[in-house]
């Protein structure tokens, strides 16, 4: 026999003399809970069915574990254990019983009026029966979280603010760079160097003072994602990397929120709505991320500036449809856009019956370590054991009697912008087949724009047996800043 | 029997949620200022918080809110000076009245709001219900829709 504390949930306290908890003795969970019902008979019908079984929607926890995952009612109790009775809430429309039923109450609330300014501002919406006053009020009440305010988030934020979405949450932590302005239309030349969120907030509030812009100047992580997403009606994923994309997907599935997804690559874009409540999630499409070095970012691969404009506007369209409850959302459909062919195609996506996250057999019940899952280093963490050379060290080495061979792994278009004198251009993808152009007798330094591709190339060369190879830290942009200011950065 | 008040903004928000979830059921929590459990005054629903419908069966006719979600909603409500005083759910293409299943699975004390929603979204009826302590009846309770207040919001701010 052990003594355990039984916690009684609020709705049942009235049947247990108002008590929030009682201490009872018994050898297992079943005996103790039956003891509780014996002491307070009014509790019995709420805990047990007429034939004496625990009701299916009464969940009982021993300390932090649900007893269905232990030995159910036979689970042995130790002194000091805490048994909690927790309601699982259920219901449904089907199997309506016959006989007299309460008369439903018609909700005839007057409309919450729009102000005269709002009527003018949104008049083109109000003319649409699919929007109208009711839809416009729904937009005003809505909260949308944009993850990323770059190429995709910028046009989406502008259109959602213009449409009168009541609250826009923005998650970003970057500063505006000159190279952003080719596509990130939220920002102007004067914003370069400014925090993206400060600039975005000012621009969006200027566009529509009726919109509340909430800046979350932070990196989205496994520890803050659920709390950050929870208050929002839907999430618009404008992120540019796989760890964040999986994190947004998983948090949306766990919270039951739609995730309006978009991604871009050079001239091509993808859009879908992942809503695990009624369709597949991103993991149904991609259970595993691709190898990290196979996926170049915009900074590496380039992107047509207007492409994220098209894709971000499509995401904004889907977000508005979901908020208004109109039309046919892109749930279960992946829209592919090819700007060069100027063609849209559509793929049907199916819910993966074995999805680890959103299927009935889900094994993942919380957020995980996404950088590790995607095989990339934690942001800000130093690369494992990558041999690197700083621009100053490289300058000294190049002036020495035995200078290293300098290999530029960028694309020819980038070499045309700027390059370090004396370097040999071998694009990263061609490196394995052109490795003979490198001499193993000399040391090798590899560089790219900012250090990402050269790190990959360095690892490739080490894998091919090169022992004296290093990556230029910060790439040619760092070189230009510290050694040769005459070179342009990009 | 307790009367319940709900701000009109929240009714609009409920309609939006039910419409967005259609043809599946949507569900979530009703929040009242902490202390409204004393039945002296009408229970004021001042915020709603959507919950994921975790039903493993047909979500067009079932909803389930797990204990984990309830615990996390209670914690969140507590931090904002609210408490969970009930639940809402939608009945797609069914009237706004409790099914036998609703009654079987109901808990006393809580307020249950049921909103009917049809495919054309033309109208939705709203009903408020509470389970009798005997569990014999799921009784309709008077529901009053009141003008939106500063405190009312679709989800707690």
How many domains of chain B? The number is 1
In whole angstroms, how far apart are the ends of chain A?
74 Å
* Strand residue content of chain A: 15-25%
- Into which percent range does the helicity of residues of chain A fall? 25-40%
Largest sheet of chain A: 8 strands, mixed
Output the CATH topology of chain B.
Answer: Cytidine Deaminase, domain 2
CATH class of the largest domain in chain A: Alpha Beta
**Averaged pLDDT of chain A, please?**
87
The two chains with the largest interface, and their residue counts, are: A-B, 56 and 81 residues
Tally of distinct domains of chain A: 3
Q: Per CATH, which architecture of chain B? A: 3-Layer(aba) Sandwich
From the spread of the alpha carbons, the general shape of chain A counts as: globular
Sketch the major β-sheet of chain B: 6 strands, mixed
Could you explain how this protein is built, in words?
The complex is a heterodimer of chains A (490) and B (157). Chain A is 30% helix and 18% strand. Chain A is of the alpha/beta class and 490 residues long. Chain A has 3 domains: 2-87, Ubiquitin-like (UB roll) (Roll); 116-373, Rossmann fold (3-Layer(aba) Sandwich), CATH 3.40.50.720; 388-482, 3-Layer(aba) Sandwich (Oxidized Rhodanese, domain 1). In chain A, the strands form 3 sheets. Chain A has an 8-stranded mixed β-sheet with strand order 9-8-7-10-11-12-13-14, sandwiched between helices. The longest helix of chain A has 19 residues, at 306-324. Mean pLDDT of chain A is 87; it is low at 95-111 and 378-382. Chain B is of the alpha/beta class and 157 residues long. Chain B has a single domain (4-146), classed as Cytidine Deaminase, domain 2 (3-Layer(aba) Sandwich), CATH 3.40.140. Chain B is 20% helix and 34% strand. Chain B has helices at residues 8-21, 67-79, 100-104, and strands at 4-7, 27-33, 43-45, 47-51, 63-65, 82-92, 111-117, 126-131, 138-140, 143-146. In chain B, strand 6, helix 3 (100-104) and strand 7 (111-117) form a beta-alpha-beta unit. Chains A and B meet through helix 1, strand 6 and helix 6 of A and helix 1, strand 5, helix 2, strand 6 and helix 3 of B.
